[in-house]
Structures are given as structure tokens and as C-alpha cells.
Amino acid sequence: MKAKDIMSKLSNQEKLVSSQTNCINLDDDIFDIGNRDIALDQMIYVRNKQGELIGQIDGGLIAYLHTAAKRTLLNSILNNIEDAVIAIDADGRICFVNQAYSKILGIPIRKIIGKLMQAIEPAALILEILKNPQVTVKPRQYIESLQCYVSVRIIPIYENGHLESVVSIFTDATEIMLLNEEVERTKEVVAHLQQKADASEQIEKLGLIGKSPAFLNVISQAVVVAKTKANVLIRGENGVGKELIAKTIHQSSDRKDSQLITVNCAAIPESLIESELFGYEEGSFTGAKQGGKKGKFELASGGTLFLDEIGDMPLMMQSKLLRVLETSEIEKIGRQGSIPVDTRVIAATNQPLEQMIAQKQFRKDLYYRLNTVEINIPSLRERREDIGLLASHFLSIYNARYQKTLTLSKALMQFFSAHDWPGNIRELQNCIEYGVIMCQEGALTPDDLPKHLRGTVETQAVVLETAVLYPDDLKESVRLFEKKCIEKALDACDGNKTAAMQQLGLSRRTFYRKLNELAISDKK
Ligand SMILES: Nc1ncnc2c1ncn2[C@@H]1O[C@H](COP(=O)(O)OP(=O)(O)OP(=O)(O)O)[C@@H](O)[C@H]1O
Questions:
Q1: What local confidence, expressed as pLDDT, does residue 243 receive?
Q2: Which residues form the Sigma-54 factor interaction domain (predicted)?
Q3: How far apart are CA 253 and CA 255, in angstroms?
Q4: Which pLDDT tens digit goes with each residue over 149-200?
Q5: Which of 83, 303, 336, 454 is the most buried (most CB within 10 A)?
């Protein structure tokens, strides 16, 4: 397009004053430049006689003119766009709003103009930009007075180097926000389903038994943490399945094709634990193997090292372990310099580490290093729903091993449901193996259980019996129950009081006081 054509669109009062190389001075030589081609990307700055910028034109004939003559045009443009526009002056007073803004707010423009923004929306972002002027774009902003989410663009406007006003342009983002929220919710559902699917896959793959929410929650945690590099501390009573959960984490991680190495910290003598974990070089001490030895950390590099019974790790080794966790390097005995390792550490314990820290038996810094994520496995008492499933699972394993076709009697299942299981799943497993070995055919009953458990079968029966005798008198039920327990212990120990008090776990003083209070006759 020719410059003159562009200029013919401008009003006569508007002068073009050349102040930059690509600017045109209308006064100077309109004919000379009139036939000049203006490239599409060429910008012409329009200035008035005082040299103030009054607009700009590009080769595509888009004119932004800020003169009084164009103000009406600008107003009508701004009032016909869907976006809400508001401008405040340097004091925060609203000096312009368009129709869209007034429509959203439900207040006529004349009632908004002149009001202080501080009074309408004290937390408005536009006020912050007034204090700290910079072009700001926020795709998601909640506007209290408009009660909607908007995507907002705020522009500070300067005149002669002074901040004159701040303009804010909002686009309603409520719909986008709702859509985003929906997408987020869907993502969460998908992640949850994926987690459940991963958990079920691992349950099946590793032959894990359990359907209780508490157990499924543990598996989900294991599957989630497996995808990260975090160190994990598994806690739970003896025999709850800590090692099995460590296996689950390893198997669900991208390290599954490398080794999972288990070290039982309680089983290694203190003098050997360093060489076990870090290895040694040939000839580093008397008795050292030819060619040296790789430590468990090195062997598990790329894979996972499971440190079971971490509470039993000697203090001196705890600081060495901490260093390895911090630097990912090991120092082999008898070797100069360290070796980098990429070993994920999972630790487990049934000990009260917090108490051990207070007693200076366990290092606090190591504790924090190890339990980036902590997984607590509930005891079998806390997930009784799983007892039946586990019992049937172990029965089929031992039936197959000992070539039997035994079943579980109702009486045995009743006992299992009421038993406390201090040894948890391992105790249940041993109990079923013992029963399968002892029972020849038919159904396993409480009589097929190991002797120490048969005692508790009787105790359970006594509890039931006394509760039936004195259903409304707890004190009397407890008295009678204590009496029966002591008499049974005396019977079992042929009247030997020392043996009976030991079996009951009572001190001599308490034992004799109880004999007296409960009027237990001294048969021997
Ligand atoms: N959910 C389960 N399904 C099937 N078997 C299980 C389950 N949990 C544990 N077991 C079995 O119970 C026994 C004890 O489990 P595990 O050795 O993992 O427990 P632990 O907590 O590490 O024991 P400890 O405290 O003695 O180190 C193992 O034989 C294991 O296979």
C-alpha cells in the first residue's frame, strides 16, 4: 500500500513527524513519500506538532490513534468487546471501565467511575501492579467482586516517564477453570484406578494375600513409592510382612530387573557388618579373601538394598551408612578413594526408633534420611478380615507340601478370629504348618495347634465362660477370670508356684497378693 493512501485515511490535523528512521513527516514532503511503498511489517509512528505520540500505523493500515477525534471510536470499540476492561489512575481511582465490566458487575459505568479500587477490591492485582509496575499476565485469577475466575492481563501505562494509569483486561475463565477442574478430577480418578490396577497386579504376581482396606492401602503406598527414588522405612510388628512389602516395592520399580539384596542387620556380628555392606580389597586384613569382596551396597547397585532390623545397626555403622546415603559413594575397606553406587535403600524395623533416638541409640539424622517415606504395616489384629484368607492360603501350601487334603474346622476358625496373633502372619503360617504335620486327615481343630497356643484356646474359653456367668458385673467377671487363670497355671505347673508365676508373667509379690485376695487354696 502507498503511504499517501494510508495518510488519506487520517484527519487533516494529524501530522506525522519524523522522529525515527522509519517515521514519516507529513509536513515535509507529502508527495515525495506519498508514492513510497510501506511494507506490511513497517511501522509508522504518528506524532503531533509537539512531538507527542498520537498513534501508529502499519503497512496493513491498522491505525491506533489516540487523539480526541478518535476517542469516540475507541470507546465504541472497547464497549463492544466481550472482555472487561478497567483502568485506574496512579491513586487507584477508577478512570475507565467498559460496558462488559459494568455488565458483569451489574453496576452502571457512571457509578463505578471515580471510585477508589482500594474500596471495591482491596486485594485486586491491579493495585499491586500500581505499586510494582510491570506487565502481568495471570491465566487464572479469582475476582471477589466479580465472583468469577478470569484470565487477566495488566499493563502499566506511562506518560513522560511517569506511571499514569494501569489497565486491566479480563477474559472470563470460569468455563475454562471448570473444564480444567474436570480434567484434574478425571486425572485423579485415572491415577487412582491405575494405582489400584498396579496394586492388584502386584498382589497377584507376588502371591500377596489380603483384602482388608488396611492391607490394600499398604500395597497402594508401596506401588506409588516404588515409582520414586525415595528411601523408604517400613515399620510394623514381627512377622507382619515387612520383607514382602520391600519386595513389592522393588518389583514395582524400574529397578526390578536388577538385584534386591537383603541384609539382616541383627544377624551380622558388629565386627563384620562394615565388610558385609561395603566390601574389602584383597589383603586388606588377615583372612581377607583373595581378590577381595564386593559389599552388599555394590552388589545391589542399580537395584535395591533391603536393610532389615535397621534398629540393630551399631552406632558406628549408622554414621557410615548416613554418609553413603548422602553421597551415593562407598568406601571399601583397604581401598583408597570411594566408589559411586546407585543403590536404593529400603529399611525396616519393629523397634521404636524415636525412643531409641531419645536414648542416643539411633542417629536422628539417619532416621530422617531413611524415612523419606514411611509405610506402616498394620498387625494381623488390626485386619482380622484377612485371617481367613491367609489361613486358607497357607493350608493349601502345606497340604500340597505334605500331600494332605485337610480342611479348617469351624472351631479353629473361631479361635483364629479371637486370637491376638502377637507373631502376626508368621505365627499363623507356622501354626497351620504345625497343624498340617500333626493332623492326619479331616479338619484341623484347635487340638492340632502347638501347645503354647492350646493354652490360649483354653483361656479364650474361660473368658467366654466368665462373661456368660456374670454378664452385668465386670468386676466379678475379672475377679473370676483372674482366679481361673491362676488355678490353671498352678495345675499346669503341678502346683509349683515359681513356675506358675513365671508362666503368668507376675512378680512374686503380686502373685502372693492375688492368691490371698482370690482365696486360692494352696493344694501343695
Ligand atoms: N500378605 C501376605 N500374603 C501372604 N504371605 C504373607 C503376607 N504377609 C506376610 N506373609 C508371609 O509371612 C511371613 C512373614 O513375612 P515377612 O518375613 O515379610 O515379615 P517381616 O515383618 O519382615 O518379619 P520380621 O519382623 O520377622 O522381619 C513370610 O513367610 C511371608 O511370606
A1: 94
A2: 208-437
A3: 5
A4: 778 899 998 888 888 889 999 887 777 777 778 888 888 877 777 777 777 7
A5: 303
Does residue 166 lie in a domain region?
Answer: yes
116 with 162, same domain? Answer: yes
Query: Which residues does residue 376 pair with via DSSP β-bridges, in sequence order?
Result: 235
Question: Do 390 and 428 meet the contact criterion of CB atoms below 8 Å apart?
Answer: yes
Q: Which positions of the chain have pLDDT values less than 50?
A: 1, 11-36, 40, 59-69, 524
Distance CA 454, CA 411 (A): 12
- By C-alpha distance, which of 346, 303, 299 is closest to 321? 346
Cell of 248: 513389592
Q: What is the ipTM metric for this complex?
A: 0.98
| pLDDT for the residue 68 | 44
Q: What per-residue confidence (pLDDT) applies to 500? A: 82
55 with 98, same domain: the answer is no
| Distance from the alpha carbon of residue 368 to the mean position of ligand 1, in angstroms | 25
Per the domain annotation, does 193 fall within a domain? no
Same domain membership, residue 389 and residue 332: no
Q: How far is the CA of 384 from the centre of ligand 1 (A)?
A: 16
Q: What is the pLDDT of residue 467?
A: 58
Question: Same domain, yes or no, for 45 and 140?
Answer: no
Tell whether 224 and 310 lie within a shared domain.
yes
Q: Is residue 183 part of a domain?
A: no
Q: How far is the CA of 132 from the centre of ligand 1 (A)?
A: 61
Looking at the structure, do residues 125 and 163 belong to the same domain, yes or no?
yes
Please indicate, yes or no, if residue 523 is contained in any of the structural domains: no
Q: Residue 15's closest CA among 52, 69, 68?
A: 52
Mutate to test the pocket of ligand 1, among 240, 264, 426 (most ligand atoms within 8 A of CB): 426
pLDDT on residue 494: 82
How far apart CA 119 and CA 517 sit, in angstroms, is 79
Give the domain range for residue 347: 209-376
Inter-CA distances, 149 with 82, 92, 123, 125, 211, Å = 15, 22, 14, 13, 43
Q: How far is the CA of 240 from the centre of ligand 1 (A)?
A: 5
My answer on whether 11 and 148 are in the same domain is: no
CA of 266 to the centre of ligand 1 (A): 17
Listed residues 354, 376, 398: the one ending a domain: 376
pLDDT at 28: 37
Cβ atoms 201, 256 nearer than 8 A: no
Rounded to 5 degrees, what angle do the CA atoms 312, 317, 318 make?
70
CATH assignment at residue 436? 1.10.8.60
Give the total number of structural domains in the chain.
5
- Of the candidates 69, 92, 122, which is a domain's last residue? 69
If asked whether residues 304 and 223 sit together in one domain, one would say yes
The model carries a pTM of 0.58
Name all residues whose Cβ lies below 6 A of ligand 1. Answer: 208-210, 236, 238-244, 308, 350, 425-426, 429
User: Ligand 1: which of 204, 219, 244, 429 to mutate, most ligand atoms within 8 Å of CB?
Assistant: 244
The ligand 1 atom nearest the CA atom of 208: 3
Q: Which of 444, 425, 436, 437 is nearest to 387 (CA)?
A: 425
